[in-house]
């Protein structure tokens, strides 16, 4: 016979998942301002006061949903990365970048919640220790680890420390201290530049800011990936989508 405590724990875990699923649907449809705990409680068959037995506040629930979205995105990126055979860092970086765009284009409201204006006041600072902050660091770590692996396997040209503007150099040094492996500041500068190109292009596509020129932004994205590949010395790792 199953232990009553074990059954209660399973039921509680199922209820927590149901609550987060309902909250995600509301957040995606209405944004953080439209999240009403009473409506979520009603959808999962609870009273509003009963909901507080599972989440102490609206903010705690929103943060957990954000953490779930980050984890879903990270699982998608890691699956794409790990499917590359043989596991060359350059190929993994390009494939993971492509997977990031695919998830973003396929989940515009969720992407907006994590990375757009909807995230203001919802996604906490990544220096925190809450579930959303931890999940956010996991996301950043995927790309950071891949770029470090690319550089350590075959160093690409980077600016010398003396060529970096002093304030920029100081900020890069602070950021570099958070990495698991110490890298030259020039590598950090190149990484940041590449990320701005990747992230900025995906944001513009998801939020509709390229429609003035492009119906389909995929060719532009692939051209940028090839250019980044050349900058990082991994152009041979770029292959057409679907290959």
TrEMBL record:
Keywords: DNA-binding, Transcription, Transcription regulation
Pfam families reported for this sequence: TetR_C_33, TetR_N
Gene3D superfamilies in UniProt: Tetracycline Repressor, domain 2
Annotated ranges, domain HTH tetR-type: 13-73
InterPro entries from the UniProt entry: Homeodomain-like_sf, HTH-type_TetR-like_transc_reg, HTH_TetR, MT1864/Rv1816-like_C, Tet_transcr_reg_TetR-rel_C_sf
DNA-binding region: 36-55
PANTHER family per the UniProt record, alphabetical: HTH-TYPE TRANSCRIPTIONAL REGULATOR RUTR (PTHR30055), HTH-TYPE TRANSCRIPTIONAL REGULATOR RV1816 (PTHR30055:SF243)
Name of this protein: TetR/AcrR family transcriptional regulator
């Amino acid at each position: 016979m199953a232990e009553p405590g074990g059954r209660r724990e399973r039921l509680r875990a199922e209820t927590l998942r149901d609550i987060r699923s309902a909250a995600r649907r509301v957040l995606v449809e209405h944004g953080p301002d439209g999240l009403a705990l009473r409506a979520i409680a009603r959808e999962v068959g609870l009273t509003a006061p009963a909901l507080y037995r599972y989440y102490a506040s609206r903010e705690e629930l929103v943060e957990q949903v954000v953490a779930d979205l980050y984890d879903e995105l990270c699982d998608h990126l890691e699956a794409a990365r790990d499917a590359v055979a043989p596991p060359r860092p350059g190929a993994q970086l390009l494939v993971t970048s492509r997977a990031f765009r695919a998830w973003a284009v396929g989940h515009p409201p969720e992407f907006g919640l994590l990375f757009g204006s909807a995230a203001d006041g919802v996604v906490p600072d990544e220096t925190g220790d809450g579930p959303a902050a931890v999940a956010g660091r996991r996301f950043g770590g995927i790309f950071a680890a891949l770029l470090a692996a690319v550089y350590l396997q075959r160093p690409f040209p980077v600016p010398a420390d003396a060529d970096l503007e002093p304030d920029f150099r100081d900020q890069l040094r602070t950021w570099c201290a958070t990495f698991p492996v110490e890298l030259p500041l020039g590598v950090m500068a190149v990484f940041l530049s590449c990320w701005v190109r990747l992230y900025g292009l995906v944001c513009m596509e998801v939020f509709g800011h390229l429609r003035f020129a492009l119906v389909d932004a995929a060719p532009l994205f692939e051209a940028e990936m090839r250019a980044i590949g050349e900058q990082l010395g991994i152009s041979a790792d770029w292959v057409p989508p679907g290959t």
